[in-house]
Amino acid sequence: MTFEFSERLKALPPYLFKELDRIRDEVKAKGVDIIDLGVGDPDRPTPPHIIEALKVAAEDKANHQYPVYSGMNAFREVVARVYKRRYNVDVVAETEVCSLIGSKEGLAQFPLAFLNPGDVSLVPEPSYPVYRSGTLFAGGVSVYMPLLAKNGFLPDLGAIEPEALKKAKIIWVNYPNNPTGAAASLEFYAKLVEFAKKHSLIVASDAAYSDVTCLDKPHPSVLEVPGGKDVAVEFHSLSKTYNMTGWRIGWAVGNATLIKGLGLVKSNVDSGVFQAVQLAGMAALEGPQDCVKQMGELYRERRGILVEGLKNAGIEVLKTDYTFYVWASVPKGLTSADFASKLLNQVGIVTTPGNGFGPSGEGYVRFALVQEVPRLKEAAQRLASLKF
Ligand SMILES: *Cc1c(COP(=O)(O)O)cnc(C)c1O
Q1: Closest ligand 1 atom, CA of 174?
Q2: Are 167 and 140 spatial neighbours (Cβ–Cβ below 8 Å)?
Q3: What is the DSSP code (8-state) at residue 12?
Q4: Terminal alpha carbon distance of the chain
């Protein structure tokens, strides 16, 4: 028997990091002490009070059965309280919130609820690849919105092709942004909501990094815009905020019809989030938030160290107070892939080449600040030994 992948699988873009993975394994095999700043996965453990809450909840047999598909009422009410507290936004827990098995799950399934074959998703690039693959799996077509330095890595809404705009159903945004670290203002979100209303678009906002910041308040939410809930859904995650990437919990919040559609897809595909994990998530969201502040400060310290090393090597970076990424310009005359393999071969540092996130990422590499300070000092020293 031979089996052939579906057209939709075959249409996925090729894995761009294959060559880099090969070089990494080769360098490793030579015994080089590698500093891995490649993958965006927090290195620190989940705070203990959250783990304790899971332990208690895991013992309770009430949590051993199928969860409620759309999430425990109590979890959704906590999310509503979070929106009131942080953004002064009123959210109806019952109809405007849905728990997710990590936000990636919601982002990937959302297009199934609202795209028909041939409909367009307006997708920023460079970006997290799931907006594009979710669109593809739903039979939709992604039309790119380049994020350029000259526009502060925000999409230029006026530059979207009228033909694409006519067929577009969803516009995706992600701020604080992965991979660039760029932020969006409330004014930008207000313009986006107005644009979406004018062109009958759904705003799908990925807010996975809204709390990964060294500032005292979270990044703005698109739902803070008056009327934002008429057009927008926001995807949120506990993964990056509370070092919980392995736990698989997040939520979608916003327009009730958008939440309902996503919920309908989900009820046919999965059976919700393990309730013990939802209870632990509630402990995270309602418990002391000093762990969030400490991580924000730690990332600021780490950023300062790495950026100093990059500066000494003559490499420019985007300044930001958000995320745990450093978006660095590649020295003149090199491609992203050239530079990433040079960093690996010459100083044993693993990064992600920017073009892996989309064509406009060419000319950049992304460093993830997921190693402890002494390792980053070592990385900075090694970088400073390079001159461009
Ligand atoms: C990490 C990440 C996510 C997904 O996080 P989950 O663990 O699935 O909640 C979503 N969007 C962006 C931009 C990310 O970097």
Answers
A1: 13
A2: no
A3: S
A4: 54
Q: Separation of 104 CA from ligand 1 center, angstroms? A: 6
Residue with CA nearest ligand 1 atom 15: 178
- Pocket test of ligand 1: the residue of 237, 243, 370 to mutate, having most ligand atoms within 8 Å of its CB, is 237
Q: What percent of the chain has pLDDT over 70?
A: 100
Query: Residue 99 burial (CB < 10 Å; 0-12/13-18/19+)?
Result: buried
Angstrom CA distances, 74 to 4, 190, 252, 261, stand at 45, 31, 15, 21
Kindly list the distances between the CA atom of residue 314 and the CA atoms of 83, 272, 341, 366, in Å, as whole numbers in the listed order.
42, 49, 18, 16
Domains of the chain: 11-40+290-383 (3.90.1150.10), 48-286 (3.40.640.10)
**Is the CB of 104 within 6 Å of ligand 1?**
yes
Helix, strand, coil share of the chain (percent; to 5): 45, 15, 40
pTM assigned to the model: 0.96
Angle between helices 130-137 and 103-114 (to 10 degrees): 40
Measured from the Cα of 177, ligand 1's closest atom is 13
Looking at the CA of residue 105, tell me the nearest atom of ligand 1. 8
**Mean pLDDT confidence for 281-307:** 97
Residue 367: pLDDT band (50, 70, 90) is: very high
Is the predicted pLDDT of residue 28 greater than 90, yes or no? no
- 382 C-alpha to ligand 1 centroid (Å): 30
Is a pLDDT exceeding 90 seen at residue 44? Answer: yes
Ligand 1 geometric centre to CA of 110 (Å): 14
Average pLDDT, the chain: 95
* Residues 24-42, mean pLDDT to the nearest whole number: 91
Q: pLDDT at residue 16 above 70?
A: no
Closest CA relative to residue 298, chosen from 239, 183, 214: 214
